[in-house]
Write a structure and sequence with these properties.
The structure holds 2 protein chains of 2 kinds.
Chain A: H1 25-35, H2 64-75, H3 101-105, H4 108-111, H5 123-140, E1 144-145, H6 152-167, E2 171-175, H7 180-190, E3 196-200, E4 211-218, H8 228-237, E5 241-246, E6 264-268, E7 284-288, E8 301-305, E9 311-315, H9 322-325, H10 338-375, E10 391-395, H11 400-409, E11 416-417, E12 425-429, H12 436-448
Parallel strand pairs in A: 2-3, 2-4, 4-5, 5-6
Antiparallel strand pairs in A: 1-7, 6-7, 8-9, 10-12, 11-12
Chain B: H1 53-64, H2 87-93, H3 96-99, H4 111-128, E1 132-134, H5 140-157, E2 165-169, H6 175-182, E3 186-190, H7 200-206, E4 211-217, H8 229-238, E5 242-247, H9 259-262, E6 266-269, E7 289-291, E8 303-307, E9 310-314, H10 330-366, E10 382-385, H11 387-391, H12 396-405, E11 412-413, E12 422-425, H13 433-452, H14 454-458, H15 471-476
Parallel strand pairs in B: 2-3, 2-4, 4-5, 5-6
Antiparallel strand pairs in B: 1-7, 6-7, 8-9, 10-12, 11-12
Classes of the chains: A alpha/beta, B alpha/beta.
């Protein structure tokens, strides 16, 4: 099938009337006449002629009707989470998303605005950011939060860099229980800055006087709750900061990292009403103590008054940022993930005090029910002791990759193969999206694979 | 008098909370309750709002209406390419077959997504003439960091440890020097010449054995195509350096010239500018990195490769590493793919043609009313100076604020830094001639107001939800979150 767009013969070679471009050839002619020239190509005369108008090997245009079909075909080759029981987490989580979020975030007034540099024309976005900062502080028990970062991994990497600036030290200690992806991103960010990255055992962390921070995950990558108080205290005893990447859903029931004295708390906001979407876009969460605010990356919305005494919001403390400070900025971050900070804010507003607690408790009880059932199966065990939230590691009787293939034959998406870290280990995640029926189906299937 | 009308937005979520209200009803527990952990691990207070669903919808809808946006207002914010964001792109990105896939699913279960990413890599490689493409970087500045780390890795791999300097034009976005610094380089500012091109004499001065490369925005932030660009690339290459391209302004060049042909070694694109993905009030964006086969081994991981009939993720041989948690802002990449497929080659070229035509038409209509410090054919945007108006008492800021009263979003102000009282105006290709005509008329009217009623201009805006805000107070006494004790 080929495209049948109107292709009016025009003043210019290859004229194509796209439905996204209003100018017709007549209007183009009128505008060119005002400029005293006869072709659009003349406007590009500054481009060296030998390089101008190169061959462009792109497919022919498609109508919306055709593109819908093509993309529906591509989408059909994927197996989405909702199409069967799914137990995959490891940094991206399948949680309930209230129906109100999508229609609100795709309102053109939010979706098609940009960074609120003109405060008077952007009060909606600025007030949302202020709400977001407030709710993230309350969620994490911290004093100040920014407008968001790219994702959980980059938030954590920027937190490590910030800890180096605050302490004027050049070594970061990563607990060996943080996400391998987070660890990799931290190493990429640190590679050019003369910052040494080392790995420590969170059960007995050895930190020195050169250590800028310890980097922890709460719950850790495997889903377990570490002795945060002890780890924060160990960092502080060496004059280092405690940086804690924290699952926001766990904050529905577990103690806040702020309670333990964490200095910088980051997280991925994806669990707060944002679809998995193959890994992005998400939003990075970032909170710290008031005393470190000048070293914080990314935007901040502040409440102030207008000249008539009316409350309003503006971007503030911008001298930290690249558009003012250039190479001496706290970070190069500019565009972040404002739309998904909005989604997270709507989610926290709708779930509220009761809803988030209910979500956390549903995840907790269902995960523990699943873990108990699986640990009773012959050949399966739980190799890690300790409290966990919604994820846990199961030691399988055979290769987790093989078991996952067999589970998919029953349309069950199993957990993540972590056999590189735990022998025959599978990292399973159970959330409020998994019914008892789903969990029992998983258990029954696993029973068959010895 | 008690007023109805628009939903009120003054009260914040925690101020409008009423104990007992809920915004969502969750299902009950369908498994037997399990033992809870030690209570010392659990929190007591969860200070989140208690509001009902209608209140949430009405509050956020009300807030949205305080914004200017492309869908509601002409938004000629220079260097941001505020073009129409097609609705089909959103619909596709939210389809369950895309929005519902988990990033760690085995690749057999996501071949459709991988095929899309693979083809998008190809499209962007073709458009830039830099055929090796990585999609994992999440914004323009993130792509810049990746590109500069690649340049660093390339020099180090050649044992070339002394290349510590990066030349950046004085007209560049702040992200350029910030990204170069994050990648461990020393930034050297490059002067622009009288025509707004990179000053070749200044470039010669820094083109030595310690030059790692230069970061060039093309067209420049002055909205001009640098007529020295081929020579710039030659000088840098001759000195052993590499040329980074900031693709923020690619909307002007689509189908007209390829960065790779001109001599660029590595560049990022802003999909949220050139490729119409919505800006979302400040993101999400996406900043894919396009490069030559020489630098391809250094691309950030992962990239998508084809293995027989199947697509898979792979890590380039000498990769600088991972820069994001998963594979990139997939939902944004889906939108850009949809946009490119919809337009095809002819449509892509029509974008740059109409964007540049609209900008020149607008510039021509305002010539003589506002000062044009670089009066030559512009690309997708034109940079004016409000110097003439300032002499009569109104600055660029005041003119920008006054435009809000006319129902137009303001241009980018005070940038680039090398133009006094800069007003950087980018109409984009998706605006009608009528809109541009009325915008031009508004700027002509404001110019007259500067003479006849300076105070009216200098106290603008008058019609927005709030008047001019006290930014000094916001910075001096930072109030960055709502707290009960701070309430009235």
């Amino acid at each position: 099938m080929t495209a049948t767009h109107p292709n009016t013969p025009g003043l210019n070679e290859g004229h194509f009337q796209s439905h996204y471009i209003p100018n017709t050839t007549d209007e183009q002619a009128e505008m060119l006449a005002a400029l005293g020239i006869d072709s659009i190509d003349r406007l590009f005369a500054d481009i060296p002629e030998q390089f101008r108008n190169p061959a462009l090997d792109l497919p022919a245009p498609l109508s919306e009707l055709e593109i819908q079909k093509e993309l529906a075909g591509m989408a059909a080759k994927n197996r989405p989470l909702g199409s069967g029981p799914s137990f995959l987490g490891a940094g991206s989580y399948d949680h309930f998303i209230p129906a109100i979020i999508k229609p609100l975030i795709i309102r053109g007034e939010f979706l098609t605005a940009y960074t609120p540099y003109q405060a008077e024309a952007s009060q909606g976005t600025l007030q949302v950011i202020y709400e977001f900062q407030t709710l993230i502080c309350n969620l994490y028990g911290m004093e100040v939060a920014n407008a968001g970062m790219y994702d959980g991994a980059t938030s954590l990497a920027e937190a490590a860099l910030m800890a180096c600036r605050v302490t004027k030290r050049e070594k970061v200690a990563l607990a060996d229980s943080i996400s391998p992806a987070y660890s990799a991103v931290i190493r990429t960010y640190c590679q050019s800055q003369d910052i040494a990255v080392e790995t420590v055992d969170p059960s007995s962390p050895e930190l020195g006087e050169e250590t800028a921070c310890i980097v922890l995950q709460y719950p850790n990558y495997f889903g377990y709750i570490e002795d945060l108080q002890n780890l924060v205290d160990a960092a502080h005893a060496q004059g280092a900061l405690a940086v804690v990447s924290t699952d926001p859903t766990a904050m529905g029931m577990f103690q806040t990292p702020g309670h333990y004295g964490a200095d910088i708390v980051t997280g991925d906001g994806q669990p707060l009403g944002i679809p998995s979407s193959y890994g992005g876009p998400y939003v990075g969460l970032f909170a710290t103590k008031q005393e470190y605010i000048r070293q914080m990356p990314s935007r901040l919305s502040g409440r102030t008054l207008d000249k008539n005494g009316k409350t309003g919001y503006v971007l503030t403390l911008q001298t930290r940022e690249q558009h003012i400070r250039r190479e001496r900025a706290t970070s190069n971050i500019c565009t972040n993930e404002a739309l998904y900070a909005l989604a997270a804010t709507i989610y926290l507003a709708a779930m509220g005090k009761q809803g988030l607690r209910q979500v956390a408790e549903l995840c907790y009880h269902k995960a523990h029910y699943a873990a108990a059932k699986i640990s009773e199966l012959p050949g399966y065990s739980l190799p890690i002791d300790g409290p966990f939230f919604q994820e846990f590691v199961v030691q399988c009787p055979s290769s987790p990759a093989e078991i996952n293939r067999k589970l998919m034959e029953q349309n069950i998406l199993g957990g993540l193969d972590v056999s590189d870290q735990v022998t025959n280990g599978m990292l399973l995640c159970v959330t409020e999206m998994n019914s008892q029926e789903d969990i029992d189906a998983l258990v029954a299937a696993l029973r068959e694979f010895k | 008098m008690q007023q109805g009308g628009n939903r009120q937005t003054e009260k914040l979520l925690l101020e409008r909370s009423v104990p007992g209200r809920v915004g969502v009803v969750m299902p009950g527990l369908d498994v037997p309750a399990q033992p809870l952990p030690d209570t010392s691990l659990l929190r007591d207070e969860l200070p989140l709002p208690e509001v009902s669903e209608p209140e949430v919808v009405q509050y956020f809808t009300g807030l949205s209406q305080l914004n200017f946006s492309i869908d509601t207002h002409f938004y000629p914010l220079g260097s941001c390419t505020m073009k129409y964001n097609p609705k089909i792109n959103d619909e596709v990105a939210f389809a369950p077959g895309f929005a519902g896939i988990h990033p760690m699913q085995p690749v057999e279960q996501s071949q459709g997504a991988l095929e899309l990413l693979y083809k998008l890599q190809g499209f962007l490689g073709e458009i830039t003439g830099l055929s090796a493409v990585g999609l994992s970087t999440l914004a323009g500045a993130h792509g810049e960091l990746a590109g500069m780390l690649m340049i660093r890795a390339h020099h180090l791999a050649n044992g070339d440890t002394g290349r510590i300097k990066v030349g950046i034009p004085d007209s560049a976005h702040g992200t350029n020097p910030a990204s170069a610094a994050m990648a461990g380089f020393e930034v050297v500012e490059l002067a622009s010449d009288k025509d707004g091109n990179v000053d070749l004499a200044a470039l010669h001065e820094i083109a030595g054995p310690d030059l790692a490369g230069v970061m060039i925005t093309l067209p420049s932030t002055l909205g001009l195509f640098d007529t020295n660009i081929v020579e710039v690339c030659r000088i840098v290459h001759e000195a052993g350096g590499l040329v980074y391209g900031d693709g923020a302004n690619m909307n002007a060049l689509l189908g007209r010239v390829k960065l790779g042909d001109l001599g660029f070694d590595v560049a990022h694109l802003n999909l949220h500018k050139t490729f119409s993905t919505p800006h979302g009030g400040g993101g999400p964006g996406a900043g894919p990195v396009c490069t030559t086969s020489q630098l391809a081994p250094y691309l950030a991981a992962p990239i998508v490769t084809q293995n027989g009939w199947a697509y898979e993720f792979s890590t380039p041989e000498k990769s600088i590493g991972k820069l994001s948690g998963f594979h990139g802002n997939f939902g944004v990449l889906v939108r850009a793919y949809t946009y490119i497929r919809t337009l095809g080659g002819a449509g892509i070229k029509s974008i740059s043609g109409n964007a540049v035509l609209n900008a020149n038409y607008m510039m021509n209509a305002l010539r003589g009313v506002y000062h044009l410090p670089y009066d030559r054919t512009c690309m997708h945007e034109a940079v004016f100076s409000a110097d003439w108006q300032k002499e009569r008492g109104s600055s660029g800021l005041e003119i920008a604020k006054r435009l809000l009263d006319y129902g137009f979003h303001a241009p980018t102000m005070y940038f680039p830094l090398i133009v006094h009282e800069a007003l950087m105006i980018e109409p984009t290709e998706s605006e009608t001639k009528e809109t541009i005509d009325s915008f031009v008329q508004a700027l002509i009217d404001i110019d007259r107001e500067v003479t006849e009623n300076t105070e009216l201009v200098n106290n603008a805006p008058h019609t927005t939800p709030v008047a001019r805000l006290d930014e000094a107070k916001a910075a001096r006494q930072p109030d960055l979150r709502w707290q009960p004790e701070a309430a009235d």
